[in-house]
Amino acid sequence: MRRKPLFAASPSSFLPSRRALLVAGAVMAAGASLPGFPLAAGAAPGTRRIPSSGEAVPAVGLGTWITFNVGNDPLLLERSARVMEAFFAGGGRVIDSSPMYGSSQATLGYGFDRLGRPEGLFAADKVWTSSQREGPAQMARSRRAWKVPRFSLMQVHNLRGWEAHLPMLLEKKAAGEIGYVGITTSEGRRHGLFEEIMARETLDAVQVTYNPLDREVEERILPLAAERGTAVIVNRPFRQGALTRRLEGEKLPDFAAEIGASSWAQLILKFILAHPAVTVVIPATTRPEHASENMAASGGPLPDAAMRERISAAIGGL
Amino acid sequence: MPVLEGWSYRPADFLLFSERVYWRLFELQDAALWPLQLVALAAGGAVLLLALRQRRGAAPAIFLILAAAWLLVAVSFLWQRYLPVNWAIAYAIPFFLAEAGLLLGLLLGRGGALAAPWSPRLLAAAGLLAYALLAHPLLPLVAARPLASAELFALAPDPTAIVTLAVGAMLVEPRSAWLIMPVPALWCLASFATLLTLGSWQGWIVLAAPVLALSVRLLPADGPSGRVQA
User: Fold this and answer.
1) What is the pLDDT of residue B2?
2) Residue ranges of the alpha helices (H) in A156-273?
3) pLDDT tens-digit profile of B145-164?
C-alpha cells in the first residue's frame, strides 16, 4: 500500500503536508529556544549561504554513501524513503550522491516517487569517470536515476578526470544546465592537488572529509575556501558510522548541554558547523530518527573555538 | 607524485554496501527462487553420490551439474541481485560464465578421472563437498541471522565455488584440476576480502576452502584396490 506523499506531487509546487510542518516546527522550536552562540551571519537559522551566489541552503544535508545502496530490495528501499521523509520533515533539502554509490541514486528516485520532491531541493551529484566523452552521458543517467530535472551542484568525484570534466561542467553551468560546479575528495586523499585546483579554478563548492578527529583540512583547505569564496560540503562526519559506534554508551560531556547537543552525533555535527568556512555537512544514515536528530543539530547555538577543542579532546580521548 | 598520493585506499573504501544489505541479498534470492532450493540440494547431493559411487558417466554428469550451477548463480544472483549494489561484480560475471564453459569443456573432453572410491583424497574432498552442501547453509544460525538468508549450492556463489573446488580436488589429472579450480579459488579470495571488510568471521571459512582443496590434492588418489575411475 502506498503511503500518502509527504509533499504534494504537483510539478510546479511542492507543498509540505501538515505532518511535515508539525515535525519541522518542532525541530525549529527546539533550536530557537537554546541560548548561546549565533549562527552564520546573513542566513536564516539552520541555513548557510553559498558564497558564489548568496543562495541559502540548510546547513545539514543527507549523504547516501553506502546507506542508500540497497539494490532492488523492497524493504530497504522503503526504509530509505522513510529516512528521506524524516529528513525533509526536519527541513532538510541538500542531498548528495554519486554514480559510484551503487544503487543510491535510484533509491533517491524511489524516494521522490513516494514522497514527491520538496520545494528547494538541492540535488548534488558527481561525475565519476576518467573518460571525457562518458561524463555528460553519465550525468544524464544520474539525473534519470534521481528523477530530477536538473542538478543543483555537479562535482568531480575524487578529482577523477578533473582536467576534462571541469571545463565541461563550467560550460553546462553557463548554459544553465547545472547550478554550481565543485570538486570532491574524502579521507584526506590528494589534498595537494585539491588545493592547487581550488586556487587555480573558479569553483562554487568543494567537498572534503572533516570531523573532530580528521582535522587536516583546517590547516589549508578550509582557509583557502574562505579566501576564494568557495562553499564547503563536509562528508564522513562520523567516519562512516565508526565514530558514533565507538562513542555509543559513552557519557556525553556535561558541556554538550550548553550548546543543546543531546547526542554524540549532534555534538560532532555542531563541531563541524561551527567552523565558519563550512557550508553544509552531509551525514548519512539508515534510520529516520537519526535523520531527524541530525537535522536538529543545525538549530541553536554552536560551540566557540575553546569548546570545539574540548569536543575534539573528549572524542579523541575515548 | 600524484599516483602515489592518490593511492591511499583501504579495503573499506571499495565496499559500497553494508552488511545488512549483503545478507539481505541471500534472503531475497532464497525467497524469489523457492522451491528451487530443493532442486539445488538434490543436484548437490547427486554430485556427492556420483563422486562416491563412481558409476559409468559419473564425471560428465558432475561437470554438467556444476556448469548449470555456475550459470544459474551468474544470472540469478550476480547479475540480478549483486550487481545493483556492487558495480565491480560486472567484472566477475564473465569469469563465472567462463567457469561454466570450462566445466562443459571437461564434460566433452577427456580428463574427468576421479580419485578412487575410498581413497584418502576422494574422502577428504567429499567431506569438503558435504560441508558446502549441508553445513554452509546453516551458518546464519551460528551468526544469529535468519535461516532465510541461507547460502545454497547453485543459488549462491560461495557454496558453489566450494563444491567446485572439492570436485577439482577429486580429479586425478592435474591439468583438469587446474582448469576448473582457479576461478572458484579467486572467487573465494574476493569473497573473503568482502566478508572480512564487512566484519564477518564467515570470511575465514571461505578462505579456508581453496587452501583445503589444494591440500586435499596432495593426498593419494588410489583406493584400497588401487583403482582409479576413468
Assistant:
1) 35
2) 162-174, 191-200, 221-228, 242-247, 264-273
3) 999 999 999 999 999 999 99
Residues of chain B found within 8 Å of residue A101, distances taken between Cβ atoms: 16
> Per-residue pLDDT tens for B42-72?
999 999 999 999 888 899 999 999 999 999 9
- Cα separation, B105 vs B181, in Å, equals 14
Q: Which residues of A touch B (CB under 8 A)?
A: 66-67, 69-73, 75-76, 100-103, 106, 159, 187-190, 192-193, 240, 286
Residue B30 included in any domain = yes
Residue with cell 541559502: A56
d(CA B66, CA A273): 56
Q: Looking at the complex, does the CB of residue B199 fall below 8 Å from at least one CB of chain A?
A: no
pLDDT value, residue A273 = 97
**If phi over 0 gives left and psi between -120 and 50 gives alpha, with beta otherwise, what is residue A46?**
left
B169 domain-assigned = yes
**Does A69 contact B16 at a Cβ distance shorter than 8 Å?**
yes
Query: Does some domain include residue B223?
Result: no
Cβ–Cβ gap B17/A102 under 8 Å: yes
Distance CA B80, CA B211 (A): 30
- Please tell me the total count of domains within chain B: 1
Q: How far is A69 from chain B (nearest CA, A)?
A: 6
Assess contact for B17 and B86: CB atoms under 8 A: yes
The one-letter amino acid at A21: L
| Residue among B137, B43, A285, A84 nearest A266 (CA) | A285
pLDDT band at B227, cuts 50/70/90? low
Position B112 scores a pLDDT of 79
Tell me whether B35 touches chain A (CB under 8 Å): no
Domains and CATH numbers, chain A: 18-316 (3.20.20.100)
Q: pLDDT digit string (tens) for B94-126?
A: 999 999 999 999 988 876 788 988 899 999 999
Whether the CB of B17 is below 8 Å from some CB of chain A: the reply is yes
Asked if the structure places residue B18 within a domain, the reply is no
Q: Which residues of chain B neighbour A106 with C-beta distances below 8 Å?
A: 84
Q: Point out the least confidently predicted range of A7-21, A208-222, B158-172.
A: A7-21
Is the CB of B79 inside 8 Å of chain A's CB atoms? Answer: no
Most A CBs within 10 Å: which of B85, B87, B149, B194, as the mutation test of the A interface?
Answer: B85
- Could you give the ipTM of this predicted complex? 0.84
Between A299 and B187, residue with greater pLDDT: B187
Which among B2, B5, B16 has CB closest to A66? B16
The answer on pLDDT for A24 being more than 90 is no
Structural domain for B180, as ranges: 23-216
